[in-house]
Amino acid sequence: MIFILSKILLFLIKPFVWFCALVVAAIFAKKDKARKKLIIAAALVLLIFSNPFLAGKAVNLYEPEYPVQKKSYDIAIVLGGFSGLNKRNNEIKLNGNCDRLFQAISLYQQGRIKKILITSGNANLVNNEVKEADLVKNFLHQICIPDSAVFIENQSRNTVENAKFSYILIKKTMPHAKIVVVTSAWHIPRAKVIFKRFFGDGLDYLPTNYIGKTDYNFEDFIIPNPGVFGTWDMLFKEWIGLVVDRFRE
User: I need a labelling partner for 92 at 20 to 30 A (CA). Which of 21, 154, 216, 237 fits?
Assistant: First the structure.
């Protein structure tokens, strides 16, 4: 039930949903004064949450700095959410978060990690038969990463379960392993809170696929971009999750 409620909440915190709700409310408003206020509110939501500069600066403040020091580890825990099933050929389909996987592969090829642990099941409410970790393991096999170098955890549906099930697996197989967690830069703050609950303070974190820009163009300040709504969706999800996870500590 909590899992389903979380999905509903993720829908309700989307700024574009707010915009649509305000527009619909304005259409059905009976008083002109109320209608005018609703239209102004909808316009403000549209302008603020479609501005690339505002979204970019918010992400810049939230994402951590890239680690300068290069270290070696026994295991890289790679959080899922970067792939799915391509139904055209029944093979893996990578998305914009796939830098998580590629950075882990790079660490392995450099000899800086011994094992790659892919932690991800399926968070789909309707069809959850295909497990992301299974798809990734097949992909790694195809690109000649030895099966002996790959662990999978294919039951988790969220970051809490990523950490919990990864902890159980590692304690059974390599209890004294030196570990780095690999995930998107915008996900690092919340991942740290969650993984600390299970692993303590002994983990390092490698941020990948940064969203925030290092510089901005003139059009970023003045030209609305509908795609920026997705950035705010992600930020609100992470911020609310961070508050909830800190409360759980």
Answer: 237
